[in-house]
């Protein structure tokens, strides 16, 4: 039986695949649970240095499962409790990504819409195939993408995010790169190779340094400038005291490769 979120480990890189191509990898209740389980396991996996997240079939992710959402309306409260729980669970999964010690790279193709676009925005990095379409298009069916807005508005300019949210219009991969939603765009046939190359570049760095750096990156974003400098200065002190960092600096000075444990 195929798993909803498949995992393939290629050395120190874990490739997660949303595996519900028939629903365009919609974030159903089961899909959210499967993602949460995978992320929880990876959080404690010291053997994984980078995570790649992709979708099976024709699309990366089409957002929430609208059929499940409509079915929730059958409850006596017309779905209020179910909807509140659904959006809370989805928000929790999205927040697991920046909390993971490993950098997470979205490998995006086809479409990434609504909560699927939120998923891309929540990842640390993203590589998109040319021709990929992105949108927070819930407004087209009368549902403003308020929760996807949280991740989107934190990675793209405010006016661009608001235009996407209020018009429901899609943008292509080139525009997504221009506004900072994705880092790189590549031909579709080179997507896996390009994403893997980026993952391998990061995986070659000192894992302990990347882990503390990622945590500090997200911690300092919400701070005032002076507090951010104080916090990151303390982080750098601890980083400098790592045995492998001392070795890395010495190796650079001696023009040799570091002997990292």
UniProtKB/TrEMBL annotation:
It comes from the Bacteria. GO terms for molecular function: hydro-lyase activity; isomerase activity. SUPFAM superfamilies: ClpP/crotonase. Pfam families: ECH_1. InterPro entries: ClpP/crotonase-like_dom_sf, Enoyl-CoA_hydra/iso, Enoyl-CoA_hydra_C, Mitochondrial_ECH-domain. Keywords: Fatty acid metabolism, Isomerase, Lipid metabolism, Transit peptide. GO terms for biological process: fatty acid metabolic process. Signal peptide: none annotated. NCBIfam families: PRK08139.1. Belongs to the enoyl-CoA hydratase/isomerase family. May play a role in fatty acid biosynthesis and insulin sensitivity. This is Enoyl-CoA hydratase domain-containing protein 3, mitochondrial. It comes from Rhodobacter capsulatus (strain ATCC BAA-309 / NBRC 16581 / SB1003). The lineage of its organism: Bacteria, Pseudomonadati, Pseudomonadota, Alphaproteobacteria, Rhodobacterales.
């Amino acid at each position: 039986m195929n798993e909803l979120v498949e995992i393939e480990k290629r050395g120190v890189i874990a490739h997660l695949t949303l595996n519900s191509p028939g629903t365009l990898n919609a974030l159903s209740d089961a899909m959210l649970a499967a993602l949460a389980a995978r992320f929880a396991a990876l959080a404690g996996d010291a053997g994984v240095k980078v995570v790649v997240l992709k979708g099976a079939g024709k699309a990366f992710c089409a957002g929430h499962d609208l059929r499940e959402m409509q079915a929730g309306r059958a409850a006596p409260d017309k779905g209020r409790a179910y909807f509140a729980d659904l959006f809370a669970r989805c928000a929790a999964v999205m927040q697991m990504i920046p909390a993971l010690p490993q950098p997470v790279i979205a490998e995006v193709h086809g479409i990434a819409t609504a909560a699927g676009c939120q998923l891309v925005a929540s990842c640390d990095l993203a590589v998109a195939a040319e021709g990929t379409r992105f949108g927070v298009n819930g407004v087209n069916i009368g549902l403003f993408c308020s929760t996807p807005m949280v991740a989107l508005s934190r990675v793209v300019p405010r006016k661009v995010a608001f235009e996407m949210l209020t018009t429901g219009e899609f943008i292509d991969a080139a525009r997504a790169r221009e506004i900072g939603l994705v880092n790189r765009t590549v031909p579709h046939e080179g997507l896996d190779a390009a994403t893997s190359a980026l993952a391998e570049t990061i995986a070659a760095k000192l894992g302990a340094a990347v882990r503390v750096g990622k945590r500090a990156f997200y911690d300092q974003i919400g701070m005032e400038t002076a507090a951010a400098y104080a916090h990151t200065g303390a982080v750098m002190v601890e980083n400098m005291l790592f045995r492998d960092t001392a070795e890395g600096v010495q190796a650079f000075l001696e023009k040799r490769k570091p002997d990292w444990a």
